[in-house]
Write a structure and sequence with these properties.
Elements (H helix, E strand, L loop, with lengths): L1 H48 L15 E3 L8 E5 L3 E2 L2 E2 L3 E3 L5 H7 L5 E5 L1 H6 L5 H5 L5 E3 L2 E3 L1 H4 L1 E3 L12 H9 L3 E4 H6 L9 E4 L4 E2 L1 H9 L3 E3 L7 E6 L4 E6 L33 E4 L2 E4 L11 H8 L9 H6 L5 H11 L6
Parallel strand pairs: 6-10, 6-11, 11-13, 12-14, 13-17
Antiparallel strand pairs: 1-2, 2-5, 3-4, 7-8, 9-15, 14-15, 16-17
Length: 347
Amino acid sequence: MKSSFLLIILAIIILVFVFVIFIFETISSTQNDSQNMINQNNLEKYSNAMVDIPEYYNNCSDSKFVILTTDRHLFQNCALSKNITEMGAEKLEFELKPELSLLYSELEPKNNTVVIFPTFTLSAYSEPGFYTFYRGDCDQEFHGTLFRDDDCLTVNIKNDFDGNYNTSDSGFKILNLLNYNFITDIDVDKNPSILNSYDTVILLHNEYVTKTEFDAITSHPNVVYLYPNALYAEISVDYENNTITLIRGHNYPEVTITNGFDWIFDNTHPMEYDNSCMPWYFYEIDNGVMLSCYPENVLLTDAFLLKALTEINNSMWWNVYQKIYDKNVSDDEKDIFLEFFKLVPKK
């Protein structure tokens, strides 16, 4: 009888133990489901904030392209025949070289980084537009329409990502191929807090921005100003009519006004006009680093510049060439540089 009683007590204890485990797992599962739902909601919110920027893809073997690649180029590159002049190709297209896959793995972003595509600058460079006005050519007929000065100071927003040298077209395509994340000026202007989601923000040639975007960028603690002449002129945006209008800067409305925000870190002169980048270097300002030259023509060939971009939080990479020239390279740095150099095409 005593033995039966003990068995009943043991069974009750086991049932209680199983019930407690069940309750614990149920609570844990509910918490996990809730957390997953939160994460999913955050992901959906984050995704909705992103502009639908197409993944860049190109096939240089297509017969419509003229292949311009040499062995020392980091990417296959080509151009439409109509874009090739005596001065060279006006607009390049790129694709990855399969044999450089190990190099590319070293050039991809290593932290939570985003690049801001210069939609407003792309729009400002359209014709007729701001530059028609700057040249004094606005009071004339374009495409059957008579344009006056005021007409040239308001232009339609271009959302086709079809840029050129002035709008960092090659930089956009190359960083896209290297798997950098992108947002646009419009994302930042409409939702400036979006930049808080990123540890590092990279600007291209974002010359024309709104005051809202200017404040958001200059308030972020880790910005890479990859192209000089960024944040140079203030514009306003009319999203209902899909236009931007020049407000201040670039010698407007007074000829003495250069930077429209009176920004003390403006590096337009003379760095915007140095496109040889020999040697290039990054230097610190209050909220990040700036590159000393306009890199549009060298991103195709300079692996160390692209490596410095992905290692931007390590100042060892900021002025590699100057260090080598000055023979100011530590033994540890020398080993690291040489190891990376093994991956770089030499011819």
